[in-house]
Write a structure and sequence with these properties.
- The chain is an all-alpha fold and 294 residues long.
- The chain has 13 helices and two strands.
- It is globular and about 55 Å long.
- The chain starts with a helix and ends with a helix.
């Protein structure tokens, strides 16, 4: 399995001609964030030469964050999980296209090791992209003179970072289910996009809150639908948007009194959500590996 992981890491990080997908996605991320912060810098320069205080107020609003983790959540929470999922999908599909998967031994143990390595590889890719994007964003915030109204405690930052990584990994692993179940490029990429942009929890919540009229038969399971929506990885990442300090608060700060979902301590739920869905995705991928030919 270690050799399979090394092979994946080599293929995504090949520097020659920047052919590795890690370089390609990394360059795309750099371009996006440099353009964003360049616009903020130009806004600041315009504000300095402007007689209107509204420009300065607008610049301050854009470059003032509640905390470092809140800044990272607001600036990376949308693009990084999607990039990680797409990279994992691309790497898995490439093995079918290039015939790499067919070079494996036909023994079941070899097959299981290969597919388990893919799930672990999704975690490695997620970690690398999160670390790279976080360092880039924090550096750019400092460059444009951004400020924070408060800091993060070591505990809140650690829980936030671990929760972000686990749930990003879970979204990538869930995307692999579609790859190995269908082996169809559009289905795999569209499915990954749906997982990452909260289509699933929004659909579940929509059904739960529409359990009347023609959908009255859903009323008895409405709390279950809301509970499932609250325990989806994309929901957990959305809950990280206010930074690490919110995770150490009470569940009522995230899920108000009108929610019928079964929830627990925010920090524990965030971590458990990622772990549970990684395990479920791994089990599904390994089950597919046992029943489908490569």
């Amino acid at each position: 399995m270690l050799n399979l992981l090394k092979s994946d890491l080599y293929r995504i990080s090949r520097p020659l001609g920047l052919r590795g997908s890690l370089w390609q996605y990394g360059i795309a991320i750099v371009v996006v964030y440099v353009l964003i912060f360049l616009a903020l810098f130009m806004l600041g320069q315009s504000a300095l030469s402007s007689a209107f205080t509204t420009s300065t107020d607008l610049l301050k609003e854009f470059t003032t964050f509640a905390s470092p983790t809140q800044a990272l959540a607001s600036l990376t929470g949308g693009i990084v999980p999607l990039c990680a999922a797409f990279m994992s999908v691309e790497l898995a599909l490439a093995d079918f296209k290039q015939g790499f998967i067919r070079t494996l031994t036909s023994a079941r143990r070899g097959r299981q090791s290969y597919f388990a390595a893919k799930v672990i590889s999704a975690g490695v890719v997620s970690f690398v992209l999160i670390a790279f994007s976080s360092a880039l964003v924090l550096a750019l915030i400092a460059l444009v003179g951004g400020t924070y109204t408060q800091g993060d405690s070591l505990a809140s930052a650690a829980v936030w970072a671990l929760g972000y990584w686990l749930n990003t990994w879970a979204l990538s692993a869930l995307s692999l289910i579609l790859v190995y179940a269908t082996r169809i490029n559009p289905v795999s990429y569209i499915g990954a996009w749906c997982f990452c942009v909260s289509v699933v929890p929004q659909t579940l919540n929509g059904l739960a809150h529409s359990s009347g009229g023609l959908l009255r038969f859903l009323e008895p399971i409405a709390p279950l639908l809301e509970t499932l929506a609250a325990w989806i990885p994309s929901s957990a990442i959305s809950n990280l948007a206010e930074g690490g300090s919110r995770l150490l608060g009470s569940s009522i700060d995230i899920w108000d009194t009108t929610s019928r979902a079964l929830t627990i301590d925010p920090a524990a739920q965030t971590l458990l959500t990622g772990i549970i869905w990684i395990a479920l995705a791994a089990a599904a991928v390994l089950a597919i590996a046992r029943h489908r030919d490569v």
